[in-house]
Amino acid sequence: MPFLPRVRLGAALALAACTLPAAAQAPASYPERPVHIVVPFPPGGIVDNVTRNLGARLSAALGQTFIVENKAGAGGSIGAAHVAKAAPDGYTLLAAFDTHAVNPLLYKLSFDSDKDLAPVALIGTSPLILVVHPSVPARTVPELVALAKARPDALNYASTGAGSSNQLTAELFKATAGVEMNHVPYKGGAPAITDVLGGRVQVMFVSASSVLAHIKAGKMQALAVTTRERIPALPDVPSISQFYPDFEARSWIGLLAPAGTPAATVSRLNTEVYRALQTPEMRTFFDAQAIQPGSGSPEQFGAFLRNETKKWGEIIRKQDIRVE
Protein backbone atom coordinates (compact mmCIF):
# COMPACT_ATOMS: atom_id res chain seq x y z
CA MET A 1 0.00 0.00 0.00
CA PRO A 2 1.56 3.36 -0.99
CA PHE A 3 2.55 5.76 1.76
CA LEU A 4 0.40 8.88 2.08
CA PRO A 5 1.75 12.02 3.74
CA ARG A 6 -0.06 12.92 6.93
CA VAL A 7 -1.85 15.91 5.39
CA ARG A 8 -2.98 13.93 2.35
CA LEU A 9 -4.14 11.02 4.55
CA GLY A 10 -6.22 13.35 6.73
CA ALA A 11 -7.80 14.89 3.67
CA ALA A 12 -8.57 11.45 2.27
CA LEU A 13 -10.27 10.38 5.48
CA ALA A 14 -12.34 13.57 5.57
CA LEU A 15 -13.40 13.03 1.98
CA ALA A 16 -14.38 9.40 2.72
CA ALA A 17 -16.49 10.52 5.68
CA CYS A 18 -18.29 13.05 3.51
CA THR A 19 -19.17 10.39 0.95
CA LEU A 20 -20.75 8.01 3.47
CA PRO A 21 -24.56 7.73 3.24
CA ALA A 22 -26.28 10.04 5.71
CA ALA A 23 -27.97 7.06 7.43
CA ALA A 24 -24.57 5.49 8.19
CA GLN A 25 -23.33 8.49 10.12
CA ALA A 26 -24.54 8.57 13.69
CA PRO A 27 -25.43 12.07 14.89
CA ALA A 28 -23.16 13.66 17.45
CA SER A 29 -26.02 13.83 19.96
CA TYR A 30 -29.25 11.83 19.75
CA PRO A 31 -32.02 12.80 20.05
CA GLU A 32 -31.82 16.44 19.02
CA ARG A 33 -35.55 16.89 18.31
CA PRO A 34 -38.86 15.12 19.16
CA VAL A 35 -39.09 11.41 18.33
CA HIS A 36 -42.28 9.89 16.93
CA ILE A 37 -43.30 6.37 17.96
CA VAL A 38 -45.99 4.87 15.74
CA VAL A 39 -48.47 2.56 17.46
CA PRO A 40 -50.18 0.59 14.67
CA PHE A 41 -53.37 0.06 16.69
CA PRO A 42 -56.15 2.27 18.12
CA PRO A 43 -55.68 4.10 21.44
CA GLY A 44 -56.48 2.25 24.65
CA GLY A 45 -54.98 -1.18 23.95
CA ILE A 46 -51.92 -2.81 25.48
CA VAL A 47 -49.48 -1.53 22.84
CA ASP A 48 -50.76 2.03 23.17
CA ASN A 49 -50.68 2.00 26.98
CA VAL A 50 -47.20 0.50 27.22
CA THR A 51 -45.80 2.82 24.56
CA ARG A 52 -47.19 5.95 26.20
CA ASN A 53 -45.73 4.96 29.56
CA LEU A 54 -42.38 4.09 28.01
CA GLY A 55 -42.40 7.29 25.95
CA ALA A 56 -42.87 9.37 29.08
CA ARG A 57 -39.84 7.71 30.71
CA LEU A 58 -37.71 8.17 27.59
CA SER A 59 -38.73 11.82 27.35
CA ALA A 60 -37.67 12.43 30.94
CA ALA A 61 -34.36 10.60 30.49
CA LEU A 62 -33.32 12.02 27.11
CA GLY A 63 -34.69 15.56 27.32
CA GLN A 64 -36.74 15.29 24.12
CA THR A 65 -40.44 14.56 23.64
CA PHE A 66 -41.39 11.08 22.47
CA ILE A 67 -44.68 11.54 20.62
CA VAL A 68 -47.02 8.55 20.23
CA GLU A 69 -49.02 8.39 16.98
CA ASN A 70 -51.78 5.84 16.34
CA LYS A 71 -51.95 4.52 12.77
CA ALA A 72 -54.25 1.50 12.95
CA GLY A 73 -55.27 -1.08 10.38
CA ALA A 74 -54.42 -4.38 8.67
CA GLY A 75 -53.14 -6.08 11.80
CA GLY A 76 -50.60 -3.35 12.42
CA SER A 77 -49.12 -3.40 8.91
CA ILE A 78 -50.33 0.10 7.96
CA GLY A 79 -48.36 1.70 10.77
CA ALA A 80 -45.41 -0.58 10.09
CA ALA A 81 -45.37 0.47 6.42
CA HIS A 82 -45.29 4.12 7.48
CA VAL A 83 -42.20 3.52 9.62
CA ALA A 84 -40.53 1.28 7.04
CA LYS A 85 -40.66 4.16 4.54
CA ALA A 86 -39.58 6.85 7.01
CA ALA A 87 -36.12 8.43 7.07
CA PRO A 88 -33.63 6.10 8.83
CA ASP A 89 -32.55 8.69 11.36
CA GLY A 90 -34.03 7.42 14.62
CA TYR A 91 -36.83 9.98 14.74
CA THR A 92 -39.63 7.66 13.56
CA LEU A 93 -39.97 4.34 15.40
CA LEU A 94 -42.47 1.48 15.48
CA ALA A 95 -44.02 -0.08 18.57
CA ALA A 96 -44.73 -3.53 17.15
CA PHE A 97 -47.11 -6.12 18.54
CA ASP A 98 -46.99 -9.89 18.04
CA THR A 99 -48.84 -9.50 14.71
CA HIS A 100 -45.66 -8.05 13.21
CA ALA A 101 -43.99 -11.46 13.02
CA VAL A 102 -46.81 -13.07 11.02
CA ASN A 103 -48.16 -10.22 8.88
CA PRO A 104 -45.87 -11.16 5.96
CA LEU A 105 -47.63 -14.56 5.92
CA LEU A 106 -51.11 -13.03 5.81
CA TYR A 107 -50.94 -9.70 3.97
CA LYS A 108 -49.48 -8.48 0.71
CA LEU A 109 -47.27 -5.84 2.26
CA SER A 110 -45.88 -2.74 0.58
CA PHE A 111 -42.56 -3.31 2.36
CA ASP A 112 -40.27 -6.15 3.39
CA SER A 113 -40.45 -6.43 7.17
CA ASP A 114 -37.07 -8.21 7.34
CA LYS A 115 -35.20 -5.82 5.06
CA ASP A 116 -36.97 -2.49 5.70
CA LEU A 117 -37.21 -2.53 9.49
CA ALA A 118 -34.44 -3.00 12.05
CA PRO A 119 -35.04 -4.56 15.50
CA VAL A 120 -34.21 -2.27 18.42
CA ALA A 121 -35.50 -3.85 21.64
CA LEU A 122 -37.98 -6.35 23.02
CA ILE A 123 -40.02 -4.18 25.38
CA GLY A 124 -41.95 -6.90 27.16
CA THR A 125 -43.96 -10.12 27.05
CA SER A 126 -47.32 -10.91 28.54
CA PRO A 127 -49.30 -14.08 29.14
CA LEU A 128 -52.71 -14.34 27.57
CA ILE A 129 -55.76 -15.17 29.63
CA LEU A 130 -58.65 -17.26 28.38
CA VAL A 131 -61.70 -15.25 29.44
CA VAL A 132 -65.42 -15.67 28.90
CA HIS A 133 -68.39 -13.43 29.51
CA PRO A 134 -70.04 -14.33 32.85
CA SER A 135 -73.16 -15.50 30.98
CA VAL A 136 -71.21 -18.40 29.45
CA PRO A 137 -71.99 -21.55 31.48
CA ALA A 138 -68.35 -22.61 31.88
CA ARG A 139 -65.97 -21.93 34.75
CA THR A 140 -63.15 -24.28 33.78
CA VAL A 141 -61.32 -25.23 30.59
CA PRO A 142 -62.91 -28.72 30.49
CA GLU A 143 -66.36 -27.15 30.87
CA LEU A 144 -65.68 -24.74 28.00
CA VAL A 145 -64.44 -27.59 25.81
CA ALA A 146 -67.53 -29.64 26.61
CA LEU A 147 -69.77 -26.67 25.81
CA ALA A 148 -68.00 -26.02 22.50
CA LYS A 149 -68.32 -29.66 21.50
CA ALA A 150 -72.00 -29.78 22.45
CA ARG A 151 -72.81 -26.49 20.69
CA PRO A 152 -70.16 -25.99 17.97
CA ASP A 153 -71.82 -22.89 16.47
CA ALA A 154 -72.72 -21.17 19.74
CA LEU A 155 -69.39 -19.66 20.73
CA ASN A 156 -67.68 -16.66 19.11
CA TYR A 157 -64.18 -15.54 20.02
CA ALA A 158 -62.81 -12.01 19.63
CA SER A 159 -59.37 -11.04 18.38
CA THR A 160 -57.48 -7.88 17.51
CA GLY A 161 -57.31 -9.02 13.89
CA ALA A 162 -56.06 -11.74 11.59
CA GLY A 163 -52.70 -13.05 12.73
CA SER A 164 -52.89 -11.49 16.19
CA SER A 165 -51.81 -13.51 19.20
CA ASN A 166 -55.49 -13.58 20.18
CA GLN A 167 -56.49 -15.38 17.00
CA LEU A 168 -53.44 -17.61 16.71
CA THR A 169 -53.75 -18.72 20.34
CA ALA A 170 -57.47 -19.39 19.90
CA GLU A 171 -56.76 -21.42 16.76
CA LEU A 172 -54.04 -23.34 18.61
CA PHE A 173 -56.57 -24.04 21.35
CA LYS A 174 -59.19 -25.17 18.83
CA ALA A 175 -56.73 -27.55 17.20
CA THR A 176 -55.45 -28.86 20.53
CA ALA A 177 -58.86 -29.37 22.16
CA GLY A 178 -60.66 -30.42 18.97
CA VAL A 179 -63.38 -27.77 19.19
CA GLU A 180 -64.92 -25.14 16.94
CA MET A 181 -65.49 -21.44 17.69
CA ASN A 182 -66.30 -18.61 15.29
CA HIS A 183 -63.70 -15.86 14.81
CA VAL A 184 -64.81 -12.21 15.19
CA PRO A 185 -61.87 -9.89 14.32
CA TYR A 186 -61.55 -6.29 15.51
CA LYS A 187 -59.14 -3.46 14.67
CA GLY A 188 -57.67 -3.35 18.16
CA GLY A 189 -57.83 -4.62 21.70
CA ALA A 190 -60.09 -1.92 23.13
CA PRO A 191 -63.09 -2.53 20.82
CA ALA A 192 -62.72 -6.31 21.13
CA ILE A 193 -62.69 -6.17 24.93
CA THR A 194 -65.69 -3.82 24.91
CA ASP A 195 -67.76 -6.39 23.01
CA VAL A 196 -66.69 -9.22 25.31
CA LEU A 197 -67.70 -7.09 28.30
CA GLY A 198 -71.06 -6.48 26.63
CA GLY A 199 -71.61 -10.16 25.92
CA ARG A 200 -71.74 -9.65 22.16
CA VAL A 201 -68.75 -12.02 21.89
CA GLN A 202 -68.38 -14.83 24.40
CA VAL A 203 -64.70 -15.80 24.44
CA MET A 204 -61.30 -14.17 24.07
CA PHE A 205 -57.64 -14.98 24.57
CA VAL A 206 -56.40 -11.59 25.71
CA SER A 207 -53.28 -10.02 27.21
CA ALA A 208 -53.43 -10.16 30.97
CA SER A 209 -52.62 -6.47 31.23
CA SER A 210 -55.76 -5.55 29.31
CA VAL A 211 -58.33 -7.35 31.46
CA LEU A 212 -57.06 -7.80 35.02
CA ALA A 213 -59.28 -5.01 36.31
CA HIS A 214 -62.33 -6.45 34.54
CA ILE A 215 -61.65 -9.92 35.96
CA LYS A 216 -61.28 -8.61 39.49
CA ALA A 217 -64.50 -6.62 39.07
CA GLY A 218 -66.39 -9.76 38.02
CA LYS A 219 -67.12 -8.46 34.52
CA MET A 220 -65.13 -11.29 32.92
CA GLN A 221 -64.49 -14.86 34.02
CA ALA A 222 -60.88 -16.05 33.76
CA LEU A 223 -60.58 -19.75 32.95
CA ALA A 224 -56.83 -20.18 32.38
CA VAL A 225 -53.52 -18.53 31.47
CA THR A 226 -51.50 -19.51 28.42
CA THR A 227 -48.08 -19.64 30.08
CA ARG A 228 -46.86 -22.80 31.74
CA GLU A 229 -46.72 -21.05 35.10
CA ARG A 230 -49.56 -19.34 36.91
CA ILE A 231 -49.19 -15.58 37.25
CA PRO A 232 -48.96 -13.72 40.59
CA ALA A 233 -51.85 -11.42 39.68
CA LEU A 234 -54.20 -14.42 39.35
CA PRO A 235 -52.76 -17.18 41.54
CA ASP A 236 -55.97 -19.24 41.52
CA VAL A 237 -56.27 -19.36 37.72
CA PRO A 238 -54.65 -22.52 36.27
CA SER A 239 -52.49 -22.84 33.17
CA ILE A 240 -53.97 -24.42 30.04
CA SER A 241 -50.90 -26.69 30.06
CA GLN A 242 -52.46 -28.34 33.12
CA PHE A 243 -55.04 -29.79 30.73
CA TYR A 244 -52.97 -29.80 27.49
CA PRO A 245 -49.26 -30.18 28.40
CA ASP A 246 -47.79 -28.83 25.15
CA PHE A 247 -49.87 -25.65 25.11
CA GLU A 248 -48.05 -22.32 25.58
CA ALA A 249 -48.38 -18.80 24.13
CA ARG A 250 -47.38 -15.22 24.95
CA SER A 251 -47.97 -11.82 23.44
CA TRP A 252 -45.13 -9.33 23.09
CA ILE A 253 -44.31 -5.72 22.29
CA GLY A 254 -41.09 -4.54 20.67
CA LEU A 255 -39.46 -1.44 19.23
CA LEU A 256 -38.21 -1.24 15.63
CA ALA A 257 -36.68 1.46 13.44
CA PRO A 258 -36.33 1.95 9.68
CA ALA A 259 -33.54 -0.17 8.22
CA GLY A 260 -30.36 1.85 7.81
CA THR A 261 -30.80 3.71 11.08
CA PRO A 262 -27.27 4.31 12.44
CA ALA A 263 -26.06 1.46 14.61
CA ALA A 264 -25.06 3.97 17.30
CA THR A 265 -28.63 5.30 17.40
CA VAL A 266 -30.12 1.79 17.59
CA SER A 267 -27.70 0.91 20.38
CA ARG A 268 -28.56 4.12 22.29
CA LEU A 269 -32.27 3.38 21.99
CA ASN A 270 -31.76 -0.22 23.12
CA THR A 271 -29.84 0.95 26.18
CA GLU A 272 -32.31 3.69 27.08
CA VAL A 273 -35.36 1.43 26.65
CA TYR A 274 -34.00 -1.13 29.10
CA ARG A 275 -32.89 1.60 31.47
CA ALA A 276 -36.44 3.02 31.35
CA LEU A 277 -37.94 -0.42 32.03
CA GLN A 278 -36.01 -0.55 35.31
CA THR A 279 -37.38 2.74 36.64
CA PRO A 280 -39.74 2.40 39.61
CA GLU A 281 -42.58 3.88 37.55
CA MET A 282 -42.26 1.31 34.74
CA ARG A 283 -41.70 -1.61 37.10
CA THR A 284 -44.84 -0.70 39.03
CA PHE A 285 -46.82 -0.32 35.81
CA PHE A 286 -45.55 -3.63 34.38
CA ASP A 287 -46.19 -5.51 37.63
CA ALA A 288 -49.75 -4.24 37.76
CA GLN A 289 -50.29 -5.29 34.14
CA ALA A 290 -48.61 -8.73 34.46
CA ILE A 291 -45.98 -7.77 31.86
CA GLN A 292 -42.48 -9.25 31.99
CA PRO A 293 -39.86 -6.63 30.98
CA GLY A 294 -37.83 -7.54 27.92
CA SER A 295 -34.07 -7.73 27.61
CA GLY A 296 -31.32 -8.46 25.11
CA SER A 297 -29.50 -6.88 22.19
CA PRO A 298 -31.10 -5.76 18.91
CA GLU A 299 -29.65 -8.91 17.34
CA GLN A 300 -31.31 -11.11 19.95
CA PHE A 301 -34.62 -9.37 19.34
CA GLY A 302 -34.17 -10.07 15.63
CA ALA A 303 -33.66 -13.78 16.36
CA PHE A 304 -36.77 -13.72 18.56
CA LEU A 305 -38.80 -12.28 15.67
CA ARG A 306 -37.61 -14.98 13.27
CA ASN A 307 -38.53 -17.69 15.78
CA GLU A 308 -42.02 -16.23 16.24
CA THR A 309 -42.58 -16.22 12.47
CA LYS A 310 -41.57 -19.87 12.23
CA LYS A 311 -43.63 -21.03 15.22
CA TRP A 312 -46.88 -19.32 14.28
CA GLY A 313 -46.42 -19.90 10.56
CA GLU A 314 -47.04 -23.57 11.26
CA ILE A 315 -50.37 -22.76 12.96
CA ILE A 316 -51.38 -20.44 10.12
CA ARG A 317 -50.83 -23.19 7.57
CA LYS A 318 -52.39 -25.95 9.66
CA GLN A 319 -55.54 -23.95 10.47
CA ASP A 320 -55.64 -22.31 7.03
CA ILE A 321 -55.81 -18.84 8.58
CA ARG A 322 -56.42 -16.07 6.09
CA VAL A 323 -57.24 -12.37 6.15
CA GLU A 324 -60.99 -12.05 5.67
TrEMBL record:
Any Pfam family matching the protein: TctC
The region annotated as signal peptide is 1-24
Q: Which controlled-vocabulary keywords does the entry list?
A: Receptor, Signal
The keyword Methyltransferase belongs to this UniProt entry's keyword annotation: no
Asked if the record carries the keyword Signal, the reply is yes
Q: Which family does it belong to?
A: Belongs to the UPF0065 (bug) family.
Q: What is this protein called?
A: Tripartite-type tricarboxylate transporter receptor subunit TctC
Task: Please tell me the species this chain comes from.
Answer: Pigmentiphaga kullae
**Which classification does the entry list for the species?**
Bacteria, Pseudomonadati, Pseudomonadota, Betaproteobacteria, Burkholderiales
